[in-house]
Amino acid sequence: MSDTLGEGKLAVSPSPEASVTGGDGARKAPSPARRASGPDWRKRFEIALLTGPAIIMFVAFVIFPVVLAAYYGFFKWKGFGPPTEFVGLENYLTIFRDSTFQDALQHNAVIVVLSLVLQGPAAVLLALLLNQKMRGRSLVRVLIFVPYVVSEVIVGTGWSLMLQTNGAVNDLLTKAGLPDWTVDWLSDPNIAIWSLMLIITWKYIGFAVILFLAGLQSIPEELFEAAAIDGATYWQTQRRITLPLLGPTIRIWAFLSMIGALQLFDLVYIIWGQYVAATAGTSTMATYMVVNGRNAGNYGFGNAVAVVLFLISLVIALTYQRFVLKRDTEGALTEGKK
Amino acid sequence: MATTTAPPLSPTTSRLAGTRKRPSLGRASWATYLIAFTLVGICIGPVLYIIIGGFRTNAEITTNPAGWPSTWQFVNYSEVLESSIFWRQVANSVICGVFTTLGVVVLGVAASYVLARYNFSGRGAMYALFAAGLMFPMTVAITPLYIMIRGLGLSDTLAGIILPQIAFALPVTIIILVPFLRAIPKELEEAAAIDGASRLGFFFRMVIPLSIPGVVTVGILAFIASWNSYMLPLFILNNETMYTLPLGVQAFASQYSVDTARVLAFTSLSMIPALVFFSLFERRIVGGLSGAVKG
């Protein structure tokens, strides 16, 4: 094997990398002209062949719809035939004047903040806890990931049954001797957003814990040994070594969590349906978009909401990336460092 | 780009080399076990409630919502399993899942191979294009996407679900696979070149077999995402015969809202495939996710 490798260093000169880096390229290549154009043309063909389909699909079904939304958003359009009634920014003005949208925007903001505040610290603590030597650790990991794997429809259907006024949760509270704690989990506007946060936390905390556990695994053991030799206590070690080194994972989790919270649709739409969410105080920008756009038959308006949602997500994502993720060279969205 | 030679980051290498068991800090005390046990209970309790609820009668559920089945009823489950609607929805979901997975894997591996192992100007931009896709989940594109799919004449067809799902799964797939494919040793490529393999030949004979573990990860993720997908089918499918399971569960739940036990049975049965797939490939999914997020 080592023999062939030795020869390989010389023999691969037709590949562009080798011909650039290796000084022996000229000797092996048949003619300078072929070396310059032949493989290069072929390389371009291969690049086009292998990436072409993916790029076409991605542009057609991910990028293009957003462009299309930007166009349709300027029309009053019921969705039949080509849009003709150009109304300029009217849809956008309507969106921002609508108090229902402002409510939805506010709910999204609350969900973003509470997701970070409730899930982040809890998930870090749980990950630290589960990172210890214990029996059945891998089984615990699998089981806490189950809510993440179960679909939103199932989560929504199950939890809405349990949180009904005469559902299992209130029944358990009564049986536990806490009948005063029973409330209208889903319909009381002061409580519904907390019920939503309960369900969101339940569904997504396993994902955060698993990520943090993976992050903990990649911290070099030597650091802990050194800290132990220096006489650091458990909590000192966690604060000075574990948390800083877990930083990149936490920051990327926070990014995914924020984007997810801004886009939240399924759970709200399934549990509260299209009309109740707004009165229960759990509507989001996405449910607003679906209810007032597609369901109401106002496709121009729906597209304008899609554009607003897109821009808000984009601004937050870029700001976060610029100021927070920038520190992490291995950030998922930092190009080229993979 | 000078980054071709950059060594792959540690999670990738350790994933390739097999999960390394690391001695960890501290030994668990009884308190740890207690908290872990409580956490597991909270996480799977509601799922068990759904499954066990399907074995109860409606009367029991109404009078005693949080109770245990007094006698285990199998009729709810057997009725769902005998209904043709359920199986048609299973079939639709399977078709969507399988074709989405195939599409994601084929397109994703090909593009990731180029991004991982070819050196060309514009590679950074191409990578950034796909990575940016992570920032735009389907929600922002759904309204225009619906109009586009309808314009293509694909409303009420499974193809109208499959094509966008492939496109939206590509960013995660590529971000997981690029470091994975980059970790294939350069020596292998050189050895293959000596033996007369072209780069495409190397791709088909070496890269594809070697990338199987990474492909399984992204494949499972794509399948579970497709199986659970709700918003896209909600927009694209209006004809009940084309419904996938998530839409089916919701339709069933609203149609039989008084028959809670049967809704619970239907819901339980619809989550089985995702749970089975997940438990079989849990290690790979978790490894893939941490690889994707960490680098």
TrEMBL record, chain A:
Location(s), subcellular: Cell membrane
UniProt xrefs under InterPro entries: ABC_transporter_permease, MetI-like, MetI-like_sf
Pfam families assigned to the protein according to its UniProt record, in alphabetical order: BPD_transp_1 (PF00528)
Membrane topology type: Multi-pass membrane protein
ABC transmembrane type-1 domain location: 121-319
Keyword Transmembrane helix: yes
Any one GO CC term of the record: plasma membrane
Transmembrane segments: 47-74, 109-130, 142-162, 191-214, 250-272, 299-320
GO BP, sorted A to Z: transmembrane transport
Comp. bias (Low complexity): 28-38
Keywords: Cell membrane, Membrane, Transmembrane, Transmembrane helix, Transport
Chain positions covered by the region annotation Disordered: 1-38
Protein name per its UniProtKB record: Sugar ABC transporter permease
Gene source species: Pengzhenrongella sicca
UniProtKB/TrEMBL annotation, chain B:
Pfam families: BPD_transp_1 (PF00528)
Segments forming domain ABC transmembrane type-1: 90-281
Membrane protein topology class: Multi-pass membrane protein
One GO location term (cellular component): plasma membrane
Record key words, sorted: Cell membrane, Membrane, Transmembrane, Transmembrane helix, Transport
Region feature (Disordered): 1-20
TM stretches of this protein: 30-52, 90-115, 127-149, 161-181, 202-225, 263-281
Biased composition (Low complexity): 1-14
Subcellular location: Cell membrane
Gene Ontology biological process terms in this record: transmembrane transport
InterPro entries, per database record: MetI-like (IPR000515), MetI-like_sf (IPR035906)
PANTHER family according to UniProt: ABC TRANSPORTER PERMEASE PROTEIN MG189-RELATED, ABC TRANSPORTER PERMEASE PROTEIN MG189-RELATED-RELATED
Family listed: Belongs to the binding-protein-dependent transport system permease family.
Record protein name field: Carbohydrate ABC transporter permease
Species the sequence originates in: Pengzhenrongella sicca
